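Researcher: First entry.
Model:
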Amino acid sequence: MKKLIIFDCFGVIFDEVAPPFIRKYLPEKEAAELKEKLFVPADRGEISYEQLLENMAEALGLEKEEMILQWNSLFRLREEIVPYIERLKEKNKIALLSNAPEGVVEKLFKKHDLERLFDKMVISSQIRMAKPDNEIYQYCVSLFEENFEEIYMIDDNLKNLEKLSEIGIKPIHYKGTESLKIFF
């Protein structure tokens, strides 16, 4: 059975970074609003990663250099997922679909030698589309130019999974590697 399994990056392969970082400085509601205001333009490629960091430092009242040091220390690979992806890749096509500013995911994947795990990688800022818009999922699937009997999207954010069944993608809410047991 031919399957395509699509993974999110932050919250699945790497720890989530933006929400916990911003919540250190702001209450939950304000943090969510600021994340939306700052990160959506960066995820859509409308502003650079550098501009995002400058805007975030200004919005939080932090010195940019100190903020960047704190920020960069939060990018932690969830090493436990790597063997699962390796095993899934043996019999399936594997894709990455991430909302991220340009350059962030690429740098992390190179540092941790993760590119080898994915047949295709789609980063929102590079194509100026972002999750949860269905067009980005359809774009990702179209890159394979083949038909799949089943397509799955693994994401920690329920908002990114809500409308996937409308386009024939099976959502999997990631809560840890036990969420992947469906494949084994």
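Researcher: Second entry.
Model:
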Amino acid sequence: MVTTTEATDMSRGLRGRTPAARTVKDTRGYRVFSVVNAIVLVLVMVVTLYPFANILAQSLSSEAFITTGQVNLVPRGFNLDTYGTVMSDSLFWTNYRNTVVYTVVATVIAMVLTTTFAYAISKKHLRGRSVFIGLAVFTMFFNGGLIPNYVLINELGMTNTIWAIVIPNAISVFNLLVMKSFFENMPEELEEAAAIDGLSTYGTLLRIVLPLSKAVIATMVLFYAVSFWNSWFTAFLYLDDAELYPVTVYLRNLIAGVTTASSLGAGGEGAGQVAANIQSVTMVLTVLPIVLLYPFVQKYFVSGIMLGSVKG
């Protein structure tokens, strides 16, 4: 039992600690850093969220207030008619369905190829391992170019098909290297024990490695899904039928049409007002699924990246 005298001596000892004995959080520099860091992060958050808030406010505002620049963060002249106009367009929903199909199929293919490739090159005993890694990294800096790629896809008969969207970008080298680093950091004893129990390489991957890799897999799924959902140039390049376009090309064509009409002065001011509102509504409907998906996987986001990072 601690006596009153001993407690007083302990208290004096804590107050009399040397600077070297204090923790980093006790220093004035750390407190200043924390305040500055918080201010910077808040500013970054405001800058990041402002465009989304502005677009959302415009989508709920009257056309006249948008074109006169009176809409910032709060809707003016509350209006939902444009949502009904856009959602009644059958081509919009056809392109929206295409985007969902393209994203799901492309993400599944990308995850299968990336996971298996990363798992293979993470094994140091693999013959030609450095060659495979070198070939993958090489594609990060060099590619065939736009015209050779188009000629290749056309000669393979993939134009105007889903495969022109999902195959060319099936593996992201950045995602591949992150998963490779994650697999390299897994304890080798787990796979050795699985081999002793009679599991094959594929059995070890499916029953041991993948269940322990949920964080990095969720992160890679998010990366791929967002990339394929937002992609428009590949579809614009390889697809000619408007019925096959993703919704991002629908939005691109809408914006391009409005820009062309404005430059030619066609349709007058009223057409420009309606177009501004339609663009905002289409943007909100396009990004909505990704915004709704992120909260369910964000808890894996940071941990997945950190687990897959290089540790020294």
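Model: Note on the second entry: Residues 4-59 form one domain.
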